[in-house]
Amino acid sequence: MSVAVKSRPPMGDSPARARAKERIWRLSALAFGHPSVEFFDAVASGQFHEAFSGAWGDATGAPWPRMPVSPDFANFEAGYISAFLHGQGGKPVAALLAGDHEDILAGLTRPAFMLNVAAFYKHFGLKPATGDEGKTDEPDHLASMLEMMAVLCHFEATALAQGKDASGYRRAQRDFLCRYLGPTLEAVAGLLRRHPVTLLDPTISQLVQDLSAWAEIQINELEVRVGPFNDPDAPKTSSVSAEPAAQNLWG
User: Fold this and answer.
1) Maximum distance among all alpha carbons in the chain?
2) Contact at 8 Å (CB) between 29 and 184?
3) Cα gap 170→187, rounded to integer Å
4) What is the Cα 132 distance to its own chain's centre?
5) Alpha helix locations (H) across the chain?
6) For residue 192, what is the DSSP state?
7) pLDDT value at position 125?
8) How confident is the model at residue 144, as a pLDDT?
9) Using CA of residue 40, residue 46, residue 49, residue 50, what is the dihedral sign?
10) Which segments of the chain have a pLDDT < 70?
11) Rounded to the nearest 5°, which phi and psi values hold at 229?
12) CA distances from residue 211 to 40, 163, 188, 223, 244 in whole angstroms, order as listed
């Protein structure tokens, strides 16, 4: 069962709440990267829950539930692999790459979609990190996108703390959530609800459901603050040429 989430409008303009959002996204990015013994130990010891629940409470006003833990790292890793990499028949139950979901591609080719995702990273001077195997992480991997949101919230918190306009960073959050991260969380959460993976660690299973619901709340909150999202990939009804996706839209 998913824990209830709610926004806290009175704190919406505080640097503290932006930092809490940053911690939520950053800790979630750790959770959806390929499992490591260190991360499993943090989950098993309660260290991850303590950090995440603290940030969750600061952002939503409610604690985050502590879930049972996989019996050992081997089961923890096997559950991740079954759900997200090589499930029954060699296919993931819920792929963590946004571009693997046809609904998210929205008619774009995979290369065009990837260029649009990469434009966000490039605009803010970021690039996907190099993973454990020495390969660059895919920019549309859920962990990479969660880290991107953490960075945007960090920029928002810094601007607010300095008394500067944070609307550009909020527009970037809105756009990235609406077009990429939100749909990916929704797709992964929906697939896991329809096809539960019993071996998947309960913390990871709970996390994806609650993040999907919270992303929708974040979108609504951001649209109130900086206006509605206009999808640059949507079919155009005007004869005027579309603006390129990489154009500076965020100030």
Assistant:
1) 59
2) no
3) 23
4) 20
5) 15-32, 37-45, 47-60, 73-84, 102-105, 110-123, 142-161, 167-176, 182-194, 202-226
6) H
7) 83
8) 94
9) negative
10) 1-12, 127-137, 232-251
11) -80, 135
12) 20, 29, 11, 18, 30
